[in-house]
Design goal:
There is one protein chain. By secondary structure, the chain is an alpha/beta fold. It has three domains: 225 residues, FAD/NAD(P)-binding domain; 111 residues, 3-Layer(bba) Sandwich (FAD/NAD(P)-binding domain), CATH 3.50.50.60; 105 residues, FAD/NAD-linked reductase, C-terminal dimerisation domain (Enolase-like, domain 1). It contains 14 helices and 22 strands. The strands form five sheets. Strands 1, 2, 3, 4, 5, 6 and 17 form a seven-stranded mixed beta sheet that branches. The protein has a five-stranded parallel beta sheet with strand order 8-15-9-10-11. The chain has a five-stranded antiparallel beta sheet with strand order 18-19-22-21-20, sandwiched between helices. Helix 1 packs parallel to helix 4, helix 1 runs parallel beside helix 9 and helix 3 packs antiparallel against helix 4. The mean pLDDT is 97. Bound molecules: flavin-adenine dinucleotide (FAD) and nicotinamide-adenine-dinucleotide.
Length: 473
């Protein structure tokens, strides 16, 4: 006999596991079905984010940044740390431990909140009256009135560069190299390419990124992208824009990438490893979408309205498998919204206020509109900008590259967009998100007391600069 629940959540990534916990908190009898297996073949909760995404990449970014500090920055502090070396296997083991602690943590959270957890691939089978039937790979079947699909995404495959998991890898393989490759090629200079490229460059690899777009980081504010490109080039990340990949061949432990540059001239890049990071595709394979009439959009994502309702009654979808940015916090926020809707509460997720962060050095973060978007919309806006170079805390940290830029409406002064390139942008951006969530004006931000000395003072001064009254410049 199949077991019945109030809610079946499919997928235990940050969209699914958060939705399941919130459902349980609201008194809904909930099961979460997930098919992720770790390298040892054991089920592992947390989806892409915890297993091969946000968390492991940030662990490696931290280790590699520490190594770079020791080898490049410590001497200016008077610290002698000659002959520092990197034990890559130890770094990867530390990363693996962080991942397993967190994935285990979700299991404990499920237990604490009384969320049932099942391992296997789930498929929508159909509806009996107002109850959905969901099949699981081992033949088991569960039933529920409400379904939340949170099946996430997987790496987009590039036909010219098939993965072999050893020399040609996606983000998963790139998080577990056993040694630093001498020459590392990366197809795609997006967020994964730049973050993982930074990791291995700091550890000594010569990193070349081949990017199809003619513009660097087109989604970022142009001024920020320009500053970041300058910084990355200075760090000797080699970035070719307008690159077209013709083919990849593997021979005698090297990978050869044949490509055409921005002028159409044929080039060959030889590397020891190749990372393919050309975006991600929604995970709907085997879900039974077609059979039950679940509508997908042209990009293969599950079609949803602003409250994540799909074309089917009582079936919701959240996270990477639907429209909007493919980010963990966006997935979680949608998960909470849907759980609260099912629980009879108000649900809300504002896609205009999703912060974007890149954990490179300098970090990049933004929320709201870019200057090019405001120009295209013909908006009347004013701008305030302040450099980290003029900030005492940034000087003390020895991390002075970059700036914060705030744009506000000319008439109402309401903040329209905040863009950061510089130290701790990932933490600083939250102040802007909070301000914008409460419809703050730049004057509101400028009238708030900021601790001294702190990086947050750069935000304060940028807000003051909107009305041309920054103090320290
Ligand atoms: P996922 O995390 O992909 O989880 C989906 C789960 O569903 C998986 O476990 C999958 O196996 C399972 N599943 C799929 N189909 C089925 C099925 N039919 N039955 C059962 N289970 C199924 N985002 C950030 O916000 N910050 C970052 O710093 C960041 N860094 C990243 C770094 C890398 C290298 C990568 C690859 C991604 C990163 N992301 C980051 C993106 C982030 O990981 C995703 O946006 C997030 O994981 C999406 O969550 P989700 O719950 O929608 O899906
Ligand atoms: P991305 O969209 O950020 O970058 C992919 C890049 O590959 C783009 O610049 C694109 O122009 C380029 N590209 C596409 N086809 C190409 C081709 N044939 N040849 C050369 N270049 C090509 O995607 P990603 O870096 O793969 O990351 C996937 C998703 O994961 C992102 O959407 C992002 O939201 C998420 N992510 C987030 C973080 C973070 O929040 N810090 C970190 C990593 C990943």
């Amino acid at each position: 006999m199949s077991k019945s629940f109030d809610v079946v959540v499919i997928g235990a990534g940050p969209g699914g596991y958060v939705a399941a916990i919130r459902c349980a908190q609201l008194g809904l009898n909930t099961v979460c079905i997930d098919d992720w297996k770790d390298a040892q073949g054991k089920s592992s909760l947390g989806g892409t984010c915890l297993n091969v995404g946000c968390i492991p990449s940030k662990a490696l970014l931290e280790s590699s940044e520490n190594f770079e500090r020791v080898t490049h920055d410590f001497a200016t502090h008077g610290i002698q740390a000659d002959n520092a070396s990197m034990d890559v296997l130890k770094m990867v083991a530390r990363k693996n431990k962080i991942v397993s602690d967190f994935t285990l943590g979700i299991r404990q959270l499920f237990k604490k909140n009384k969320v049932d957890s099942l391992h296997g691939r789930a498929q929508l089978l159909g509806r009996d009256g107002d109850v959905w039937r969901v099949g699981i790979t081992d033949g088991e079947e569960v039933r529920a009135k409400h379904i939340i699909v949170a099946t996430g995404s997987t790496s987009r495959i590039l036909q010219q560069a098939p993965l072999d998991g050893l020399q040609v890898v996606d983000n998963e393989g790139a998080l577990s190299f056993s040694e630093t490759p001498k020459r590392l090629a990366i197809i795609g200079a997006g967020v994964i390419g730049l973050e993982l490229g930074s990791v291995w460059r700091r550890l000594g690899a010569e990193v070349t990124l081949l990017e199809a777009a003619h513009v660097f980081l087109p989604a970022a504010d142009e001024q920020v992208a320009k500053e970041a490109l300058r910084a990355f080039t200075k760090q000797k990340l080699i970035i070719h824009l307008g690159a077209q990949i013709d083919g990849v061949t593997q021979a005698a432990e090297v990978v050869k990438i044949n490509w055409r540059d921005i002028h159409g001239v044929t080039q060959e890049l030889v590397a020891d490893k190749l990372i393919v990071a050309v975006g991600r595709v929604p995970n709907t394979q085997g879900l039974g979408a077609e059979a039950v009439g679940l509508k997908l959009d042209a990009a293969g994502r599950i079609e949803v309205d602003e409250q994540c309702r799909t074309s089917l009654s009582h079936v919701y979808a959240v996270g990477d498998v639907v429209r909007g940015p493919m980010l963990a916090h966006k997935a979680s926020d949608e998960g909470v919204m849907v759980a609260e809707l099912i629980g009879g509460q108000m649900g809300h997720c504002d896609l205009n206020l999703v912060p974007n962060v890149m954990y490179t050095a300098p970090e990049i973060a933004w929320v709201g509109k870019t200057e090019q978007q405001l120009k295209a919309a013909g908006a009347a806006y004013k701008t305030g900008q302040f450099p980290f170079l003029a900030n005492g805390r940034a000087r003390a940290l020895g991390d002075t590259a970059g700036f914060i830029k705030i744009m506000a409406d000319v008439n109402t002064d309401r903040i329209l967009g905040v863009h950061i390139v510089g130290p701790m942008a990932s933490e600083l951006i939250q102040q802007a998100v909070l301000a914008m969530a409460f419809s703050a004006s730049s004057e509101d931000l400028g009238r708030v007391i900021h601790a001294h000395p702190s990086l947050a003072e750069v935000m304060h001064e940028a807000a003051l600069a909107v009305d041309k009254r920054a103090i320290h410049i």
